[in-house]
C-alpha cells in the first residue's frame, strides 16, 4: 500500500477464506473505535462501512499519511499503511482472545485503490461512485431494507441521523459538490458493474 498525498483511496479487506470478522455489535463498535484511534490521526476518513466478513473505508491521504517510518524489521513504510497493520493486528488479537481461536482473521494485507485516473489528459474521479457503493453494501447484501438501518456505516452521519461521527463530511461535500439532500436521494441508485470494477 503506497499513498499519494491529496488523493482519495478505497481501502478494503475481508476475512481470511471469507470468514466473518465481526460476530456481534460489540465487535463492530470496537473496530470503529480502533479506526478512530489508529487512522483518524493520520488521514481524513471520508466514509466507512463494516460488513460481517469485510470492511470498506474511503480515506483522503494527507501529509501525515505519507510520512515514512521504520516498521517491522526496520523496513521503511508509510505511516497510514503501518497504522492499518496495527489496526488489523490488534483487532484480530482481541477477537481471537475473546473467541478462544487462533490464526489469521484477515486476508494478508488491506488493499488501497486510488479513486482517480488520467484518461486522455483528463482526470477522472470515482470518489462519488465509491461513496455510494460503500454505503449500499448492507442493502445490496439483503441485511437491511434501508441504509439508515445499518448502524455500522457512516451513512447516518452524512444524512444527519448521528452526531458523534468522525468523517470529514465538509471535505467530501466540497470536493463533490453534493448536498445532504442529494445524498439521501441518490444513495439507493444502482451503480453499473463496469463502474464498480474501477473501485477495486
Describe the SSE topology:
Layout: E1 8-14, H1 25-39, E2 44-51, E3 54-60, H2 63-66, E4 68-70, E5 76-78, H3 79-99, E6 111-114, E7 116-119, E8 122-125, H4 127-140, H5 155-158, H6 169-176, H7 180-186, H8 193-197
Antiparallel strand pairs: 1-3, 1-6, 2-3, 4-5, 7-8
Helix pairs in contact: 1-3
List unreliable stretches of 5+ residues. none
Q: Count the strands?
A: 8
Strand order of the largest sheet: 2-3-1-6
Question: What is the number of helical segments per DSSP (H or I, 4+ residues)?
Answer: 8
Beta percentage is 15-25%
* Estimated radius of gyration: 17 Å
What does this structure look like?
The protein has about 200 residues and is of the alpha+beta class. About 40% of the residues lie in helices and about 20% in strands. The chain has 8 helices and 8 strands. The protein has helices at about 25-40, 65, 80-100, 125-140, 155-160, 170-175, 180-185, 195; strands at about 10-15, 45-50, 55-60, 70, 75-80, 110-115, 115-120, 120-125. The strands form 3 sheets. Strands 2-3-1-6 form a 4-stranded antiparallel sheet. Helix 1 packs antiparallel against helix 3. It is globular, with a radius of gyration of 17 Å.
Kindly list the characteristics that best describe this protein.
200 residues; alpha+beta; two-stranded antiparallel sheet; 8 helices; 8 strands; 39% helix; 20% strand
Summary of the model, kept short:
This protein is of the alpha+beta class. The chain has helices at residues 25-39, 63-66, 79-99, 127-140, 155-158, 169-176, 180-186, 193-197; strands at residues 8-14, 44-51, 54-60, 68-70, 76-78, 111-114, 116-119, 122-125.
Amino acid at each position: 500500500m503506497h499513498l499519494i498525498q491529496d488523493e482519495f483511496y478505497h481501502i478494503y479487506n475481508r476475512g481470511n477464506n471469507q470468514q466473518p470478522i465481526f460476530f456481534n455489535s460489540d465487535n463492530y463498535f470496537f473496530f470503529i473505535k480502533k479506526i478512530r484511534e489508529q487512522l483518524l490521526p493520520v488521514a481524513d476518513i471520508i466514509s466507512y462501512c463494516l460488513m460481517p466478513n469485510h470492511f470498506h473505508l474511503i480515506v483522503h491521504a494527507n501529509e501525515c499519511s505519507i510520512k515514512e517510518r521504520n516498521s517491522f524489521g526496520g523496513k521503511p513504510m508509510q505511516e497510514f499503511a503501518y497504522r492499518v497493520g496495527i489496526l488489523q493486528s490488534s483487532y484480530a488479537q482481541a477477537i481471537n482472545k475473546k473467541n478462544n481461536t487462533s490464526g489469521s482473521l484477515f486476508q494478508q494485507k488491506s488493499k488501497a485503490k486510488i479513486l482517480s485516473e488520467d484518461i486522455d489528459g483528463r482526470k477522472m474521479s470515482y470518489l462519488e461512485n465509491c461513496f455510494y457503493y460503500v454505503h449500499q453494501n448492507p442493502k445490496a447484501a439483503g441485511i437491511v431494507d434501508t441504509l439508515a438501518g445499518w448502524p455500522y456505516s457512516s451513512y447516518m452521519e452524512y444524512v444527519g441521523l448521528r452526531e458523534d461521527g468522525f468523517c470529514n463530511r465538509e471535505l467530501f461535500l466540497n470536493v463533490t459538490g453534493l448536498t445532504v439532500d442529494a445524498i439521501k436521494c441518490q444513495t439507493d441508485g444502482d451503480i453499473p458493474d463496469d463502474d464498480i470494477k474501477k473501485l477495486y
